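pinned: reference chain
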Amino acid sequence: MENYIEYNREERNLCAHLFRLLLEDQPNWGPLKAFLGIDSIINPQVYCEVALIRDAYDVRKPHIQTFVESLCEIIARQHNVQSYTNYQKLSENLKDPKETHPKQIKYKLQEAGQLKSEGDRSVYGNLQAVFNAKPDLAICYNDNLIVFEAKFQSHFSEEQLKRTRQIAQIWAELLYKDLGFDVQPNIVVRTLGLSGSIKDLDMSWEKVYEIARQYWGDEDFSVRVFERALNFGIQ
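pinned: its structure tokens
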């Protein structure tokens, strides 16, 4: 019977080993610089499975209404919504975090027969989506916010990448201080995948494997995980 390392193709598992790699060689940050294709970096912040909006909401309770109202305003602008029910004009039970999480607003409006306008469907439907979204990797350095979406063999959809850009825009406008920036950062969304299966990538798992071998050698467990995944991927 094969060992699980031979057939585990979970993207989150590969991203966990990548996260370990990007934190190696501090304070020189050699693997991170190689991954980003830059020569120097100072005091970066690296996050994986980034649920920033969800977590920021949790720490801002119970004084949360201004935060959610600002979220809705950005979402409305992103989706070209000209008219919708302002968050502050919703019923008190929908604004009370003890009774309603923001991602439940659309459902509760619909349940009460009050979800009638396209604007409300768009804003509160997308509000639910941004709370559920967790981009695979975010790297903050200098004035840059680099957000990666990772795939192994499956392909990226333009809709997914658009959603990630919208999430990053919310972070940059509303939560940039939480990410250690003094001003709104430059946003870049990049793709990570298997070069033999996906075209027009910004970074490949093959390159990640090369970087890992350089710093850890062939007997390291993470290196072996990358190697088995690549061997499987080119079959």
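why pinned: The chain has a mean pLDDT of 93. The longest strand covers residues 186-193.
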